[in-house]
């Protein structure tokens, strides 16, 4: 007979049925009898066999072996376990009608608890995604109060930078690592004079908060060792970890250097060509003219490890047709040929855009060049125009469409992280703040229409909806299915991202745009959200005649102003670290919560 041990799905650590072992249990073992006359299966005594008339001289039966005894014992144990398990289950099943009702109710309660646990887990995932964004805040339900403060000698020159779980306060000759919840100073690192640290959010201007936490923080400064200090002192770069561990080395080049994400250092250095700094000729209209047959330098773009100086990649942007205004600076109101001083750059997230005297290019920080230097129709190629590139919140980037017919208004081209690419009819609207959840779409402005395009891998670029007479210029936030946009009339409108339908409209006077609606970045200094409320630091007077700042909290559900804080400071830097708000004031830095 063959018996199989039963699989108990409820038993902790119970194996899968396919892994249950099978025992072949033997009914009769030589020398062992389990007949009816011997119900207990007693073994005969080999030394005193029973006498009988038929007794022969054959040898006595052999005693059972160890294996046989073990197998018999196993069969008995299995049988006992089955009987006891069945009895235990039967004893625990209710026999009355009321008991069975309670059993069903208990089962429902377990299901409810399981659903509630799932909702809780989803809420935790949502909060985790929110706090991972640059503008995510733990709670804006009520007006925040000052939780802690740190005095600074020169607050206006200080910079707040997010590190993993740490607020870095860079000012003077040092960087302090601060606990954003308590304000405790965790460490202090000397970095030198006039330090510039990053990566960080550009100061004094709003826009998409694309900067990731600085891990590590890279600071560039003068060592202060020169006879006169300042520019005469050798430059040093200090790389600081979130724990305050620091490493410093001296820079051996006069190139323009920029701190970047991932512990990178960017070098921008003109190579060859005419780099002489001298006055230029100005015509009667005040327009400067470059010297005849002027040939400016190429531009070397090099990205290296900030701590060691090891090169990660480099590229050369060749000199092209140069406009005079891209090659000059002004000294005492007079134009000066200055190819180094005229060099400009934008570094946002993982995207670097450079432009200067006859040179222009865009790169990802991994070395991928985004413009086509061999295509004369590509705006950055000849240095005449600078194209607009921008990173997308969920990965990927947006750049100009260079295939548009001459004389037409070109739109943007979207390059998604999963490899999908599609052209827009107009311009992409990248949100300043999000809740970290990808809605699978991108908003675009095309003329007087606002539309949405799919960013899903299987239908990238598909038009989801289009609404007429929605002249959106800026997307302040895209949170929980709602996009908060600024239109060209100055009104702030909430749009359902799934349908394009209006949800609410905020009067232009609430934000006091004045005639600055097309430059919302100079009126609103950022956007922050807890998923229910949108916090906007807004200048009190766009004309600048009256100093002051307002922290304005708008309910995302209905557009109501939940609370407002009026401040005397004309400008502030506001930052969120792990969901905790910190702000530069006229006295130093404070934590809000």
UniProtKB/TrEMBL annotation:
Composition bias type Basic and acidic residues, residue spans: 1-10
Keyword ATP-binding: no
Disordered: annotated segments: 1-64, 371-404
Keywords, alphabetical: Membrane, Transmembrane, Transmembrane helix
UniProt key word rRNA-binding: no
Domain of life per record: Bacteria
Transmembrane segments: 101-121
Stretches assigned to the Pyrrolo-quinoline quinone repeat domain: 459-570
InterPro entries for the chain: PQQ_b-propeller_rpt, PQQ_rpt_dom, Quinoprotein_ADH-like_sf, WD40/YVTN_repeat-like_dom_sf
Name of this chain's protein: PQQ-binding-like beta-propeller repeat protein
Species: Promicromonospora aerolata
């Amino acid at each position: 007979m063959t018996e199989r041990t039963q699989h108990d799905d409820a038993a902790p650590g119970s194996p899968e049925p396919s892994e249950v072992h099978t025992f072949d249990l033997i009914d009769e073992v030589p020398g062992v009898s389990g007949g009816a006359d011997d119900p207990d299966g007693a073994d005969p005594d080999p030394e005193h066999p029973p006498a009988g008339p038929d007794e022969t001289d054959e040898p006595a039966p052999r005693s059972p072996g160890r294996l046989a005894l073990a197998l018999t014992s196993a069969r008995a144990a299995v049988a006992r376990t089955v009987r006891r398990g069945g009895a235990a289950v039967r004893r625990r099943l209710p026999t009355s009608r009321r008991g069975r009702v309670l059993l069903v109710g208990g089962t429902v309660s377990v299901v409810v608890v399981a659903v509630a646990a799932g909702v809780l887990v989803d809420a935790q995932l949502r909060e985790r995604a929110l706090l991972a964004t640059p503008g995510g805040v733990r709670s804006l339900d009520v007006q925040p109060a000052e939780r802690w403060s740190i005095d600074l000698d020169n607050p206006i020159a200080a910079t707040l930078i997010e590190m993993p779980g740490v607020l870095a306060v860079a000012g003077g000759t040092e960087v302090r690592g601060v606990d954003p919840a308590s304000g405790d100073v965790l460490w202090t690192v000397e970095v030198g004079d006039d330090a510039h640290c990053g990566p960080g959010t550009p100061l004094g201007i709003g826009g998409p908060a694309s900067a990731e936490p600085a891990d590590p923080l890279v600071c560039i400064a003068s060592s202060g060792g020169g006879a006169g200090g300042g520019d005469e002192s050798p430059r040093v770069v200090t790389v600081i970890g979130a724990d305050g561990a620091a490493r410093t080395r001296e820079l051996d080049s006069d190139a323009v250097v920029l701190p970047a994400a991932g512990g990178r250092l960017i070098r921008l250095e003109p190579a060859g060509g005419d780099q002489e700094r001298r006055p230029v000729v100005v015509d009667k209209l005040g327009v400067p003219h470059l010297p005849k047959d002027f040939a400016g330098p190429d531009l070397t773009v090099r990205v290296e490890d900030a701590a060691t100086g090891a090169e990660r990649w480099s590229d050369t942007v060749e000199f092209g047709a140069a406009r005079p205004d891209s090659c000059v600076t002004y000294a005492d109101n007079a134009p000066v040929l200055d190819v180094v001083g005229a060099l400009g750059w934008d570094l946002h997230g993982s995207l670097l855009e450079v432009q200067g005297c006859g040179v222009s290019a865009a790169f990802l920080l991994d070395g991928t060049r985004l413009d086509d230097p061999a295509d004369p129709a590509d705006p950055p190629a000849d240095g005449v125009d600078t194209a607009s590139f921008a990173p997308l919140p969920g990965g990927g980037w947006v750049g100009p469409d260079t295939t548009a017919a001459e004389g037409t208004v070109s739109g943007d081209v979207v390059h998604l992280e999963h490899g999908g690419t599609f052209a827009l009819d107009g311009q992409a609207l990248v949100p300043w703040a999000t809740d970290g959840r990808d809605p699978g779409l991108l908003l675009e402005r095309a003329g007087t229409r606002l539309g949405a395009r799919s960013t899903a891998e299987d239908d990238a670029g598909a038009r989801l909806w289009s609404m007429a007479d929605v002249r959106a210029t800026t997307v302040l936030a895209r949170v929980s299915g709602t996009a908060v946009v600024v239109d060209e009339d100055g009104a702030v409108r909430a749009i359902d991202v799934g349908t394009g339908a209006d949800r609410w409209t905020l009067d232009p006077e609430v934000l006091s745009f004045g005639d600055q609606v097309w430059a919302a970045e100079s009126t609103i200094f950022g956007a922050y959200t807890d998923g229910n409320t949108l916090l906007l630091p807004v200048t009190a007077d766009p004309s600048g005649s009256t100093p002051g700042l307002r922290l304005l909290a708008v309910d995302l559900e209905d557009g109501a102003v939940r609370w407002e804080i009026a401040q005397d400071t004309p400008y502030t830097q506001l930052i969120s670290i792990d969901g905790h708000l910190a702000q530069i004031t006229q006295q130093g830095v404070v934590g809000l919560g």
